[in-house]
Design a protein that fits this description.
Elements (H helix, E strand, L loop, with lengths): L24 H4 L3 H11 L2 E4 L4 E4 L10 H12 L4 H4 L5 H21 L9 H20 L5 H22 L11
Antiparallel strand pairs: 1-2
Helix pairs in contact: 2-3, 3-5, 3-6, 5-6
Length: about 180
Protein backbone atom coordinates (compact mmCIF):
# COMPACT_ATOMS: atom_id res chain seq x y z
CA UNK A 1 0.00 0.00 0.00
CA UNK A 2 1.37 3.44 -0.95
CA UNK A 3 1.50 6.22 1.61
CA UNK A 4 -0.41 9.34 0.71
CA UNK A 5 1.14 12.79 0.73
CA UNK A 6 -1.45 15.07 2.30
CA UNK A 7 0.61 18.28 2.11
CA UNK A 8 -1.16 21.50 1.21
CA UNK A 9 0.01 23.43 -1.83
CA UNK A 10 0.45 27.00 -0.67
CA UNK A 11 0.81 29.77 -3.22
CA UNK A 12 4.36 30.53 -4.30
CA UNK A 13 6.21 33.18 -2.33
CA UNK A 14 7.84 35.98 -4.32
CA UNK A 15 11.23 34.78 -2.99
CA UNK A 16 12.68 31.80 -1.20
CA UNK A 17 12.64 31.65 2.57
CA UNK A 18 15.80 29.58 2.79
CA UNK A 19 19.20 31.14 2.16
CA UNK A 20 20.05 29.20 -0.97
CA UNK A 21 20.40 30.48 -4.51
CA UNK A 22 20.26 34.05 -5.70
CA UNK A 23 16.75 34.72 -4.43
CA UNK A 24 17.94 36.12 -1.11
CA UNK A 25 20.02 38.73 -2.97
CA UNK A 26 17.76 41.56 -1.86
CA UNK A 27 18.57 40.75 1.75
CA UNK A 28 22.27 40.86 0.94
CA UNK A 29 22.17 44.28 -0.71
CA UNK A 30 22.93 46.00 2.51
CA UNK A 31 25.42 48.88 2.40
CA UNK A 32 25.50 49.34 6.17
CA UNK A 33 28.75 47.43 6.64
CA UNK A 34 30.60 49.40 3.96
CA UNK A 35 29.22 52.73 5.15
CA UNK A 36 30.13 51.85 8.75
CA UNK A 37 33.67 51.06 7.65
CA UNK A 38 34.00 54.32 5.72
CA UNK A 39 32.59 56.28 8.65
CA UNK A 40 35.04 54.76 11.13
CA UNK A 41 38.02 55.18 8.82
CA UNK A 42 37.14 58.84 8.25
CA UNK A 43 37.26 59.25 12.04
CA UNK A 44 40.75 57.71 12.16
CA UNK A 45 39.74 54.32 13.46
CA UNK A 46 40.70 50.84 12.35
CA UNK A 47 39.01 47.52 12.92
CA UNK A 48 40.97 45.27 15.26
CA UNK A 49 40.02 41.68 14.46
CA UNK A 50 41.52 40.40 17.70
CA UNK A 51 39.05 42.48 19.73
CA UNK A 52 36.38 42.56 16.99
CA UNK A 53 35.87 46.32 17.43
CA UNK A 54 36.87 49.68 16.02
CA UNK A 55 39.71 51.50 17.83
CA UNK A 56 41.40 54.85 17.35
CA UNK A 57 44.64 54.77 15.39
CA UNK A 58 46.70 57.77 16.46
CA UNK A 59 48.62 57.83 13.17
CA UNK A 60 45.33 58.17 11.27
CA UNK A 61 43.90 60.77 13.68
CA UNK A 62 45.96 63.58 12.08
CA UNK A 63 43.72 63.59 8.99
CA UNK A 64 40.57 62.34 10.71
CA UNK A 65 37.30 64.26 10.62
CA UNK A 66 34.82 64.62 13.46
CA UNK A 67 32.13 62.07 14.21
CA UNK A 68 29.53 64.59 13.06
CA UNK A 69 31.25 64.87 9.67
CA UNK A 70 31.62 61.11 9.30
CA UNK A 71 27.94 60.61 10.16
CA UNK A 72 26.82 63.32 7.72
CA UNK A 73 28.93 61.86 4.91
CA UNK A 74 27.61 58.37 5.68
CA UNK A 75 24.06 59.70 5.46
CA UNK A 76 24.82 61.22 2.06
CA UNK A 77 26.25 57.92 0.82
CA UNK A 78 23.27 55.98 2.16
CA UNK A 79 20.94 58.19 0.12
CA UNK A 80 22.20 56.40 -3.00
CA UNK A 81 23.64 53.19 -1.53
CA UNK A 82 20.57 51.27 -0.51
CA UNK A 83 18.55 48.32 -1.81
CA UNK A 84 15.95 50.56 -3.45
CA UNK A 85 18.58 52.28 -5.56
CA UNK A 86 20.37 49.01 -6.27
CA UNK A 87 17.32 47.53 -8.00
CA UNK A 88 16.43 50.74 -9.82
CA UNK A 89 16.66 51.21 -13.55
CA UNK A 90 19.14 54.04 -14.04
CA UNK A 91 20.90 55.33 -17.13
CA UNK A 92 24.51 56.49 -17.25
CA UNK A 93 23.52 60.16 -17.45
CA UNK A 94 21.24 59.85 -14.39
CA UNK A 95 23.95 58.03 -12.46
CA UNK A 96 26.61 60.63 -13.21
CA UNK A 97 24.27 63.52 -12.42
CA UNK A 98 23.24 62.00 -9.09
CA UNK A 99 26.80 61.04 -8.09
CA UNK A 100 28.07 64.55 -8.86
CA UNK A 101 25.11 66.00 -6.96
CA UNK A 102 25.95 63.94 -3.89
CA UNK A 103 29.61 64.97 -4.14
CA UNK A 104 28.63 68.63 -4.57
CA UNK A 105 26.45 68.42 -1.45
CA UNK A 106 29.34 66.82 0.44
CA UNK A 107 31.75 69.60 -0.59
CA UNK A 108 29.26 72.33 0.40
CA UNK A 109 28.71 70.65 3.76
CA UNK A 110 32.46 70.23 4.33
CA UNK A 111 33.10 73.91 3.60
CA UNK A 112 30.09 75.26 5.52
CA UNK A 113 30.80 73.14 8.60
CA UNK A 114 34.60 73.02 8.41
CA UNK A 115 35.09 73.87 12.07
CA UNK A 116 32.55 71.34 13.46
CA UNK A 117 33.82 68.75 10.96
CA UNK A 118 37.46 69.33 12.00
CA UNK A 119 38.52 70.17 8.46
CA UNK A 120 42.04 71.59 8.64
CA UNK A 121 43.15 71.58 5.00
CA UNK A 122 41.89 71.39 1.41
CA UNK A 123 43.24 67.85 1.03
CA UNK A 124 40.68 66.60 3.57
CA UNK A 125 37.86 68.11 1.52
CA UNK A 126 39.16 66.47 -1.65
CA UNK A 127 39.73 63.14 0.11
CA UNK A 128 36.29 62.96 1.72
CA UNK A 129 34.45 64.19 -1.39
CA UNK A 130 36.25 61.62 -3.58
CA UNK A 131 35.21 58.81 -1.22
CA UNK A 132 31.61 60.02 -1.24
CA UNK A 133 31.62 60.31 -5.03
CA UNK A 134 33.28 56.92 -5.62
CA UNK A 135 30.97 54.94 -3.38
CA UNK A 136 27.91 56.71 -4.77
CA UNK A 137 28.97 56.30 -8.39
CA UNK A 138 30.00 52.66 -8.12
CA UNK A 139 26.85 51.70 -6.23
CA UNK A 140 24.61 53.34 -8.80
CA UNK A 141 26.60 51.90 -11.71
CA UNK A 142 25.48 48.46 -10.54
CA UNK A 143 21.91 49.44 -11.51
CA UNK A 144 22.82 50.54 -15.01
CA UNK A 145 20.88 48.55 -17.56
CA UNK A 146 18.88 46.97 -14.74
CA UNK A 147 21.86 44.73 -13.84
CA UNK A 148 20.92 43.75 -10.29
CA UNK A 149 17.20 44.10 -11.02
CA UNK A 150 17.41 41.54 -13.85
CA UNK A 151 19.36 39.15 -11.61
CA UNK A 152 16.77 39.48 -8.83
CA UNK A 153 13.85 39.05 -11.24
CA UNK A 154 15.60 36.08 -12.86
CA UNK A 155 16.17 34.37 -9.54
CA UNK A 156 12.56 34.98 -8.51
CA UNK A 157 11.36 33.53 -11.81
CA UNK A 158 13.54 30.46 -11.17
CA UNK A 159 11.83 30.06 -7.80
CA UNK A 160 8.36 30.34 -9.34
CA UNK A 161 9.29 27.95 -12.14
CA UNK A 162 10.57 25.42 -9.62
CA UNK A 163 7.42 25.73 -7.50
CA UNK A 164 5.12 25.48 -10.55
CA UNK A 165 6.93 22.36 -11.79
CA UNK A 166 6.46 20.70 -8.40
CA UNK A 167 2.74 21.54 -8.48
CA UNK A 168 2.38 20.01 -11.94
CA UNK A 169 3.71 16.70 -10.62
CA UNK A 170 0.92 16.55 -8.07
CA UNK A 171 -2.63 15.61 -8.81
CA UNK A 172 -5.87 16.73 -7.31
CA UNK A 173 -5.73 17.43 -3.53
CA UNK A 174 -1.93 17.53 -3.50
CA UNK A 175 -1.43 13.83 -4.14
CA UNK A 176 1.38 12.61 -6.33
CA UNK A 177 0.25 11.71 -9.81
CA UNK A 178 1.06 8.18 -10.96
CA UNK A 179 3.76 7.84 -13.51
Amino acid sequence: MQSQDNSINAPALPYRIDNTGKADLLDKINPDRVVEEIKNRLMGREFIRKNMRWEDNFILKKNAVSELCANDMATLVLSVSNPNVSISKLKDEEIRKRAYGVMEAAIKMLIANWKDYRITNIAQITYVSEIVFSVSFITMKQCEGEGIRKMVVGSRQETHLSTDTERERRGLFGRRANG
